[in-house]
Amino acid sequence: MRPTDKNKAVSWPKLSGPHICVGAGQQALELARKSLLSAADLRNGKLCKADISAVFDFLSESPDLFDIYRTNYEACGRIHKKQPFVGANKDFFAMSILRFLSFDILRKVFDAQIKRTDRNWEIEFLHAFGTYICRTSYAGFTEDLSSAYRKLAKTKGNSITAITIANDGSIQDIVKKACKGFPSEHIDFVNFSNAVNKRLSDKYDTYGPSPIKVSEPVVEQFFEALRCPANRNYFRQMILH
Predict the structure, then answer these.
(1) What is the C-alpha to C-alpha distance for residues 79 and 159, in angstroms, rounded to an integer?
(2) Which residues contact 45 (CB under 8 A, 6 or more apart)?
(3) Is 206 exposed, middle or buried (CB count within 10 Å of its CB: 0-12, 13-18, 19+)?
(4) N or C of the chain: less Cβ packing under 10 Å?
(5) Which of 241, 239, 228, 195 is nearest to 105 (CA)?
(6) Once rounded to an integer, what is the mean pLDDT over residues 173-188?
(7) What are phi and psi of 161, to 5 degrees?
(8) Cα dihedral sign for 101, 198, 110, 80?
(9) Residue 75's closest CA among 26, 149, 23, 153?
């Protein structure tokens, strides 16, 4: 992500993720709420179990609910036409945030390791990065980001872009807190290297010295580049200003 030119309109691509479906869920819940309130008005404010079941039976076949599904399906298709479907395990969003924060530096500093393996190298590095943060400086990092993501998905649905995420105040606060605990001393670089190399060993079944692994000097270079004002992408400008 690069800083936007304020004089030009920039259209950022919608992102893949569970938030695509959250938008449809929110609309469906709102339709159900309005339908139940309308039915309650017809029953003097009281609904029995049979009344509630009748409302949901009606909704399940209603054109309004089907339109919500259809619109979300079309949005999902447009998004995944331009980018692959992504997995969404527990730390999916934390890994995504760390990628937004560091992907350009990561690919530059660790280019040799990535070229010797495949695209999964970067994923394993980011997983190790998130785990390291949770273990050493911010135990709630993954959970707090997951909570912030759910709230953002509730309000933005399938319209979320990288800029939507970068401009979210709650996400910024969480990442700023995490950045304060990033490795800065030699022992930190050693521990971070060990965390990454353990993940790489398990992924690529290589438990001895290997050119696909990281070393303390290269890890130090990575974090120095992240902190350098001259190297900041849009997300780092928002977080590290």
Answers:
(1) 10
(2) none
(3) middle
(4) C
(5) 228
(6) 96
(7) -125, 175
(8) negative
(9) 23
pLDDT per residue over 124-135, tens digit each? 999 999 999 999
Question: Which residues have a Cβ under 8 Å from the Cβ of 79 and sit 6 or more positions away?
Answer: 13, 14, 15, 16, 20, 158
Q: What phi and psi values does residue 5 have, to the nearest 5 degrees?
A: -85, 120
Asked whether residue 212 carries a pLDDT value surpassing 80, the answer given is yes
- Reduced to 3 states (helix: H, G, I; strand: E, B; else coil), residue 199 is helix
CA distances 161 to 11, 15, 73, Å, are: 9, 5, 18
Tell me the residue type at 97: I
pLDDT above 70 for 12: no
Of 8 and 111, more confident = 111
Q: With 0-12 CB in 10 A as exposed, 13-18 as middle and 19+ as buried, what is 59? A: middle
Tokens of 239: 């977080």
Measured CA to CA, the distance from residue 96 to residue 57 in angstroms comes to 39
Q: Which two tokens stand for residue 173?
A: 């606060």
- Is the pTM higher than 0.90? The answer reads no
- Does pLDDT of 85 surpass 80? no
Tell me what percent of the residues of the chain surpass a pLDDT of 70: 83
Rounded-to-integer distance, Cα 238 and Cα 42, Å: 51
Contact assessment for residue 178 and residue 129, using Cβ atoms and an 8 Å cutoff: no
